[in-house]
Design goal:
This protein is an alpha/beta fold. The protein folds into 2 domains: 1-132, no CATH class; 218-297, no CATH class. The protein has 11 helices and 7 strands. The strands form 2 sheets. A 5-stranded mixed β-sheet has the order 1-2-3-4-7. A hairpin with a 4-residue loop joins strand 2 and strand 3. Helix 8 runs parallel beside helix 10 (276-287).
Length: 300
């Protein structure tokens, strides 16, 4: 499911960077520009980096976390340092923790290291716990962070009203194309907290994900991954069948030398065995001469 979050998060941050920077408590500037940095040495996932033009320009680093990671503090530090090194600007990091499972014990938003009396490192970033955010603040805040509303501090009984308010704002404030992308992000984020059935019922009639470019990107990646997994599984099955065929052939050759040519029934029994370990056990009995006929070999 990670590729779904990557695609959804890419859109909502790139399209509405000011909303996410403000929600993360970082300072805004006169202009915001998404930038990229090659952090592939530590992560294949694209971190969201935005250049903020201000009296003192800096890079806003926006990270999303949906699952437990005991090393989150140190990982964010590594991302921050690498981005700072490559872009040669101050980097401020904020991590949006999307559900309680992401709040691993030990996460503090702070890394402090000491090495002797003269060497000390202090790094801080801001963790934002989405499930603790008042839903009212999200419903009245930036349009780009509105997809977080259903997974904020809201009762399930109040969700229909939340969805209707989101629908009203999307229709009033953004073009249809962006509305589709925002609903797609909403659907994906809701999957962190609610079942597919509950989510589908809540969003029924308010969205058409299939026309969303984010949805299409997710679909294409899913198909590609499915094909790749299919090829890998096909290779695995081919290797497995090859091993079975070889084991059957060795058993037949060795048994023929010991017991004579097998009849059609014996050949059929050997061909029906799909367990490599069982074939190897039968071969061991032939080689150690613990069986003297085909019938003895099969215990009949």
């Amino acid at each position: 499911m990670a590729h779904q979050f990557d695609a959804a998060n890419k859109f909502i941050v790139d399209a509405f960077p000011a909303d996410w920077i403000a929600r993360g408590g970082l300072r805004l500037g006169t202009a915001l520009t998404p930038v990229s940095a090659d952090l592939s040495a530590v992560s294949k996932a694209a971190d969201k980096l935005v250049r903020v033009e201000a009296a003192e320009p800096y890079i806003a680093h926006v990270e999303f976390q949906s699952g437990p990671d005991a090393r989150l503090d140190s990982r964010v530090l590594v991302y921050n340092v690498l981005a700072r090194h490559q872009l040669q600007l101050e980097v401020n990091s904020v991590v949006f923790l999307l559900r309680p499972e992401a709040m691993t014990p030990g996460i503090t938003g702070r890394v402090v290291t000491r090495s002797g009396a003269d060497h000390r490192l202090v790094f801080t970033y801001k963790p934002v716990r989405i499930w603790e955010l008042p839903v009212e603040k999200l419903l009245t805040g930036g349009i780009g962070t509105l997809p977080l509303a259903p997974i904020s501090s809201v009762r399930e009984a109040d969700l229909p009203g939340v969805i209707q308010e989101m629908k009203r704002r999307f229709e009033a404030e953004v073009p249809v194309e962006q509305s589709r992308e925002l609903w797609t992000a909403t659907r994906i984020l809701m999957g962190l907290r609610f079942s597919d059935k509950v989510t589908a019922n809540l969003l029924k009639g308010v969205m058409n994900m299939r026309e969303s470019s984010t949805y299409q990107a997710i679909l294409r990646e899913g198909i590609e991954q499915g094909i790749e997994r299919g090829i890998e599984r096909g290779i695995e099955r081919g290797i497995e069948r090859g091993r079975l065929g070889e084991a059957r052939a060795v058993l037949l050759r060795s048994g023929t030398r010991q017991f004579g040519a097998p009849d059609a029934n014996v050949q059929a029994r050997i061909e029906s065995i799909d367990d490599i370990l069982k074939l190897e056990a039968l071969l061991d009995r032939v080689l150690d001469r613990s069986a003297h006929t085909w019938d003895e070999l099969f215990g009949s």
